[in-house]
Amino acid sequence: MSYFENLGPQFDQCISSVKEGKKNYILPLISLLLSLLLTLTGWRYFVLSLIYMINLSFFAYIVRDSYSIRKENVLPLLTICISIVLTSIHVINTLDAIAALSNLGEMFSDFGDAFE
Question: What is the DSSP track for 90-103?
Fold first, then answer.
């Protein structure tokens, strides 16, 4: 039996578990919302950047909890996977921009050495 069969009852169970306040169902949704916010706003605001870093540091913890309940409900695991992909895309683009700036700095430092 596939984890993706009968997603309707799993979705209903997920909604009821969020209403009950179960952290295994709430944390992936919060992480997804933070990842979407990171994608929309970027690293512009200091406080939000700190929250994004906290979100990144808890990915493994949330994945572990979501993976442990995957047999009864696969939606939290899918949610955290989407969150990780969204955050990874943004972080990779940011690192690429930092690498480009570093290369630009090296280019200008090499240009200065030509006149010595």
Answer: HHHHHHHHHHHHHH
The residues, ordered by sequence, that sit 6+ positions from 25 with a Cβ below 8 Å of its Cβ are: 14, 17, 18, 73, 76
Does residue 28 register a pLDDT over 50?
yes
Q: Helices (H) and strands (E) in the chain — how many of each?
A: 5, 0
pTM passes above 0.85: no
Both tokens assigned to 106: 């090296």
Nearest to 81, CA basis, from 70, 71, 92, 72? 70
pLDDT digits 0-9 by tens, 100-112: 988 887 877 766 5
